[in-house]
Amino acid sequence: MADRSESQVRTRKRIWMIAIGVAACGLGVGAGFFILDKGDKDGPGPGPSQSATAAPGGDPSDANAPTVPGEPNLLRDRSGQINIALSPDAVLGKVDNGNVLRLRSNGNSYAQAAEQVVDASKSFTVSAWVYNEADAGSRFAISQGDGASYSFELGREDSNGKKSWVFRMQTDQKGAASTAVGAVSDGFNTVRTWALLTGVYDAQAKTLTLYVDGKEAGRAPVAAAWAGQGPLQLGRSRHHGIWSGPWAGVIGHVLVWDKPLTADQVLALKGGKLDKEIKPVGSWLIG
């Protein structure tokens, strides 16, 4: 009986993943169909769940609308005062229990805040549910910085044919590639699959840690981090003075804290059970 039950669970999971892949590709301008299953034995995650019809924007009168009332191209910060402007090719969708942003992997498909959300030289945590559709290339869901370089970036790295989730930071004010330090996952599928990516920088412990689906996936020592003055970005990162790594796919439930979450807290975040007293300094595409 146990073997039969496990087989049924695996079969259902395969069916869900096929449905997710088909649905995410269909989300576009005007309408689409979007499915997200993040349920597990610990309960569903805090972001979008189950299935619903996706459509651009949202009702400004809705308390859970992702945009600022009267400003359909401005993502509302549900925790602070830093709203995020959408570029022309960035499309909003609404699903059960959450909102999502669909980006098209081009230079006109991203979202940018008016200013930085955290001081990257101090401890912080950044997290989002992501779905990457690109088979090749490095793709960044969240970053902060401009000018010559990013301060930090979170997304998918494609290096020498190896595709991994990555949380990377700069350690020198010059922003040279040789000064970057990254926590990189190993053995994870990064294409057409949902993942909760969480990057934690602990300035006191001098470490940066990458969590995938609530579990530690990579860790790296970092002596000191460089804090560029640029704003938070969704869907791209700054490399050598140009915007790079355009995201191809969907981003939802973006959260930023000005403190390092512990491993237990990140796991609780995955299950939607994080203590409400641990408040983020920025949150977008929530509710």
Explain the overall architecture.
- This protein is mainly beta and 287 residues long.
- It has two helices and 21 strands.
- Mean pLDDT is 81; it is low at 1-61.
Key descriptive features of the protein:
mainly beta; 8-stranded antiparallel β-sheet; 287 residues; 9-stranded antiparallel β-sheet; disordered N terminus; 40% strand; single chain; globular; 2 helices
Strand content: 35-45%
Q: How far apart are the first and last residues' alpha carbons, in Å?
A: 39 Å
| Number of alpha- plus pi-helical segments | 2
Radius of gyration: 18 Å
Strand order of the largest sheet: 3-4-5-8-17-10-11-12-13
Overall pLDDT metric: 81
Structural class: mainly beta
Number of DSSP strand runs: 21
Largest sheet: 9 strands, antiparallel
Order of helices and strands: HEEEEEEEEEEEEEEEEEEEEHE
Shape: globular
**Proportion of helical residues:** 10-25%
* Low-confidence segments: 1-61
Question: Summarize this, please?
Answer:
With 287 residues, the protein is mainly beta. The protein contains 2 helices and 21 strands.
